[in-house]
Amino acid sequence: MNSRHIVAVVPAAGIGTRMQSDIPKQYLTLHGKTILEHTLERLSSHSLVDSVVVAIHPDDRLFFNLPISRHVKISTVTGGSERSESVSNALQALPHDSWALVHDAARPCVCQKDITRLIDTEDLSPTIGAILASPVSDTLKRGSDGYVSDTVDRSQLWRALTPQFFHAHTLLNAYRQAHLNHLTVTDEASAMELAGHKVKLINGHAGNIKITHPDDLSLAAFYLQQESD
Ligand SMILES: Nc1ccn([C@@H]2O[C@H](COP(=O)(O)OP(=O)(O)OP(=O)(O)O)[C@@H](O)[C@H]2O)c(=O)n1
Ligand SMILES: C[C@](O)(CO)[C@H](O)COP(=O)(O)O
């Protein structure tokens, strides 16, 4: 039984440059709902999630038109110029001793079973967290000037997914330390690793894709359909 106070932190303040769309990708529609609505519905409906804090762009005029923006569990903070800043802004708003379940708005296909397995990971502590991840199954090449320079041993490589689950105050301090050291981190685990903490790898559903490029939309639509079947 989980006695922790768990807050889902949703970085949703990006502008989706790589999607090349007229609006930020989290507001594109799949199966009649925005990507952000799909994501927030899955997090806010999870029985182990006590509340949700969404980091939205300062100029975002779309979020509060969504009915889910009025969900009793959901509140917002202003995002920053980088994902790490958006997450840090949300972490500062959390009650002391919360646990942060950080999940990209751009990952609407996350399944509830994976969220439960991540939260229920054994032996977590303020200095030991856990992330969903997927083992690499392709042969990986390092490239230089358009040619293969070498083949990377994939046997111990994983793709980091989200959610990533950490003690909120420890994670905030880790992000602050990375920022003070001018280190760019692209996920919560990187900040925690740099701070010398441990991160458990929890095998997650490969369909939990991050919608980044236009081609990802049809794949996400497929995986969303699988969940609703
Ligand atoms: N300053 C930022 C940048 C990103 N994000 C969020 O972090 C998640 C993962 O980032 P990414 O996929 O890179 O989204 P964008 O930054 O919007 O995409 P791009 O890099 O193509 O602009 C997304 O849900 C995005 O909204 C955020 O909250 N604040
Ligand atoms: C957090 C993340 O989704 C883990 O794979 C990834 O690092 C986000 O990267 P992005 O460039 O901000 O999309």
Structure description:
The protein has 229 residues and is an alpha/beta fold. It has a single domain, classed as Spore Coat Polysaccharide Biosynthesis Protein SpsA, Chain A. It is built from six helices and eleven strands. A seven-stranded mixed β-sheet has the order 5-4-1-6-10-7-11, with helices on both faces. It is globular, with a radius of gyration of 17 Å. The two termini are 29 Å apart. The model has no long low-confidence stretch (mean pLDDT 97). The ligand C[C@](O)(CO)[C@H](O)COP(=O)(O)O binds at residues 83, 104, 160, 162, 186-187, 210.
Which terms would index this structure?
229 residues; binds the ligand C[C@](O)(CO)[C@H](O)COP(=O)(O)O; 26% helix; alpha/beta; two-stranded antiparallel ribbon; single chain; binds cytidine-5'-triphosphate; Spore Coat Polysaccharide Biosynthesis Protein SpsA, Chain A; 7-stranded mixed β-sheet
Q: Using only CA atoms, what is the Rg? A: 17 Å
Main β-sheet: number of strands, strand sense, barrel status? 7 strands, mixed
Order of helices and strands: EEEHEEHEHEEEEHHEH
Distinct small-molecule ligands in the complex: cytidine-5'-triphosphate, ligand LQXTBERG
Counting DSSP E segments of at least 2 residues, the number of strands comes to: 11
CATH class: Alpha Beta
Which blocks of ≥5 consecutive residues have pLDDT under 50?
none
CATH architecture descriptor: Alpha-Beta Complex
CATH superfamily annotation: Spore Coat Polysaccharide Biosynthesis Protein SpsA, Chain A
Major beta sheet, strand line-up:
5-4-1-6-10-7-11
- Terminal Cα separation, in Å? 29 Å
InterPro entries: IspD, IspD/TarI, IspD/TarI_cytidylyltransf_bact, Nucleotide-diphossugar_trans
GO molecular function, one term: 2-C-methyl-D-erythritol 4-phosphate cytidylyltransferase activity
Function: Catalyzes the formation of 4-diphosphocytidyl-2-C-methyl-D-erythritol from CTP and 2-C-methyl-D-erythritol 4-phosphate (MEP).
Family: Belongs to the IspD/TarI cytidylyltransferase family. IspD subfamily.
